[in-house]
Structure formats: structure tokens, C-alpha cells
Amino acid sequence: MNLETIKTPSLIVDFQKMKRNAEWATARAKELNVDLRPHVKTHRSLEIARLQTAGNFGGIMVSTLAEAHFFAAGGFTDITYGVPIERGKFAEAIAVARKIERFAVLSDDAATVRELNEAAKRENARISVFLKTDVGYHRCGVEPGTPEAHEIPRLIADASHLDFAGILTHAGHSYHANTPEKLLAVAHEEHDKMRGLAEALRAEGIAVPTVSIGSTPTFSAIDSLAGVTEFRCGNYIFFDAFQATLGSCSFADCALTVLAAVIHRDPHRRRLVVDAGAVALSKDRGAVEFDPACGYGRVLDTDGTDLNLRIGSLSQEHGEIDVADRETFDRLKVGDRVRVLANHSCLTALQHSHYHVLDGDRIVDRWEINRGW
Ligand SMILES: Cc1ncc(COP(=O)(O)O)c(C=O)c1O
Question: Do 30 and 177 share a domain, yes or no?
Fold first, then answer.
């Protein structure tokens, strides 16, 4: 099978590019002397998780308990669930914790920590808990310097059926840094605040086994990680147009595209319509803050050459492309195929049920994507 013969729209992962991205991250983690814990929510695929943990310690982060079960069943034994836990998920979290060597959850809420300890006690189980820490993203977490940043670790460390795993943050505000200097400042802030909090907790007699930080933009920018033990990033495995616009990678590193066919051609408006709409691409605008014309994805030809076109608007199954250049318009006929480079690969991947694995010009495999919560 090849890109001319498979059905459209189809999710295509370029194996060699993905492998290079995995090797880049493994080498970078070694250079920075941290354990690499890939966030597998980007792809939710066993094969990709195996590729990116090869040469690393084997731990992964997931974003749903469905993924936790899926990856545990696939042989992964060290998993962190990356969204703060709440009581509705205790029973399932304890069930996963019983199955594997180490399962950790996150919390920034003292009452939840108490309730989780009671639930673990009733079930005669133990579970590891990280303090979810906020270093500037202001999505979840407690900020270093607040009383909670000290009280919650103490509560976890003293709980009869919990183990204090350490402190963990995600510098998601790195996605808004519009210059290399601002990105490096976010990376330094993430590093400094986490190192400072770990030192303060240790000074109070609380053991902090893991100091875990991470996002793909800060991973590409940071120069030193002394005091940090673990780095978690996810998007790097595919990268995407957003990361390339931010400078975390080049457009040539982007491994994920959606193969689409031209289904309509309007010579009067010089507009093409392809069969990849919002359901195949997602409606993520990606780097619209930095590139207002980014649309819903860059259009490449089947061999990956940028046609300098964007998906300008989307409906469920239709993607519309305005083509300024006459020669390009004349070249593309109904039935011709193009590849759309995703703005945000994590969201695009999860619109699909499987990857078509492209190696050179052949589709060599088909990998399942885990879905749901
Ligand atoms: C808690 C947590 N850790 C790590 C990551 C990985 O970030 P990235 O995909 O930028 O590498 C995310 C991404 O959303 C996250 O939510």
C-alpha cells in the first residue's frame, strides 16, 4: 500500500522522522542528566510508546485512566496519571496501582489527599501521589511559596497508605512565549521554582524523591536541569506546525500528516475542497497568536513538499483551501491527494482510530490508537 492507494482521509505517521525525534529526546535527556518520561497522550499507541522509551528508564505519563489500563496491559510498569485525581476515579486508580510496579497520581487538594488515603486504606492498597505544582501556567497546581505547597506534601508523606512521589509541574505557558528569550525565561522559571520548592521541602525533613517538569518547548530550550530528576514531554514525538512556529523544531521534523483527497475544485473562486474536515484534523488553531494566517493546517503534496497553502476553513468533513497561485491551482485536480500537516498533532491524532505507518514511500504497518476516558 502507498499514499495513492489507501482510503482518505487517513492519519499518516512518517516512521523515520518519528524515530529521529525519539532519538533526539533520548539523547537530550542524557545530556541534561534527567530521566525521560514521555507523555503518551500525544499518540496513545503502544508501538510508539515502546519506540520512545527504548534507551530510557521505561516510565510514561498518561492523561486518562483508559490509557493507564491500556499501557499497563501492554507491559508498561511505571505510569503517572497526569491529570489531578478526584474521588470518582479512586477505585479505578487503585485497581491500576495493584496491577503494576508503580502508579502515581497528582493532587493539589488537601481534602482529596485525605479521602484518597482513606480509600487506599479500605482497599488495603498503597498509591504514590505527587504534589501538582504551578510554576506560572495557572491551570492547576499550587504555587511554590504558598502554605499549601508545604502542607500537602506533609499530609501525603504522613498518610498511612500513600507515598509522597515528589513535585510535578507542566509549564504550559511556554506555548505563549513568542521569542527564544521569553521561552528560555519560562524554562528557567520552571526549573528554578521547582528546584527551590524541592530544597525547601527537604529542609523541612520531607523526602522528595522526584522533581518532575516538562513541556516540549521548554525541553528544546533549557540549558541545564540541575536538581531536576525527571523530564516529561509528549508532543516532540511528532512535533507539529505550532512547535515549528515556536522554534522547538523545524517543519521538516514534523512526522504527522493527514492524507486527504481533492473532492471539489472551483475555478472561479480558485478554491479547492478536500475530504479532511474538522473530524479528521481537529479545529485547533495552533500558533494563531504568532501566525494569524496559520489556518487549520499546512497543505503539502504527497512527497511532503510544502505547497504554501493552508486549510482556511473547516466544516465536519470538508476542508477549504484558497489557492492564490494559478500554477498550483491548475496542477491539483479532483481525486488528487495532498497531506495536511497538523497544527496540533496531539489533537489531530486523537481524531483517528489508527496510524498508517509510512516508511519511505510504502505504508508498512497500521497501529491502534487507544480512545476514551
Ligand atoms: C501534565 C503534563 N505534563 C507534560 C505534558 C507534555 O507537554 P508537551 O506535549 O508540550 O511535551 C503535558 C501536556 O499537556 C501535561 O499536561
Answer: yes
One domain for residues 222 and 81: yes
- Do 214 and 99 fall within a single domain? yes
CA distance 148 to 142: 7
Q: Which atom of ligand 1 is nearest to the CA of 174?
A: 10
Ligand 1, residues 28, 34, 39, 346: which to mutate, most atoms within 8 A of Cβ?
39
Within 6 A (CB) of ligand 1 lie 39, 42, 61, 82, 170, 214-216, 232-236
Ligand 1: distance of its center to the CA of 232 in Å? 7
Q: Which residue among 28, 64, 170 has the greatest number of ligand 1 atoms within 8 angstroms of its CB, and so is best to mutate? A: 170
- The alpha carbons of the chain give a radius of gyration, in whole angstroms, of 22
Long-range contacts formed by 323-329: CB under 8 A, 24+ apart: 323/270, 323/271, 323/272, 324/270, 326/270, 329/267, 329/270, 329/272
Domain at 108, CATH number: 3.20.20.10
Packed helices 90-99 and 110-122: angle between N→C axes, nearest 10 degrees: 60
Mean pLDDT of each 10-residue bin along the chain, 373 residues long:
96 98 98 98 98 97 98 98 98 97 98 98 97 97 98 98 98 91 94 97 98 95 95 98 93 98 98 98 88 92 96 97 97 98 96 98 97 95
Q: Tell whether 8 is covered by a domain.
A: no
Domain that holds residue 332: 249-368
Same domain, 233 and 286: no
Q: What is the pTM of this model?
A: 0.96
Residue 10 within a domain: no
Q: Report the pLDDT value the prediction gives residue 353, as an integer from 0 to 100.
A: 98
Pocket test for ligand 1, best of 24, 131, 194, 233 (most atoms within 8 A of CB): 233
Q: Using N-to-C axis directions, what is the helix angle for 90-99 and 65-73, rounded to 10°?
A: 20
Residue with CA nearest ligand 1 atom 2:
170
**Cα 371 to Cα 1: distance, rounded to the nearest angstrom:** 25
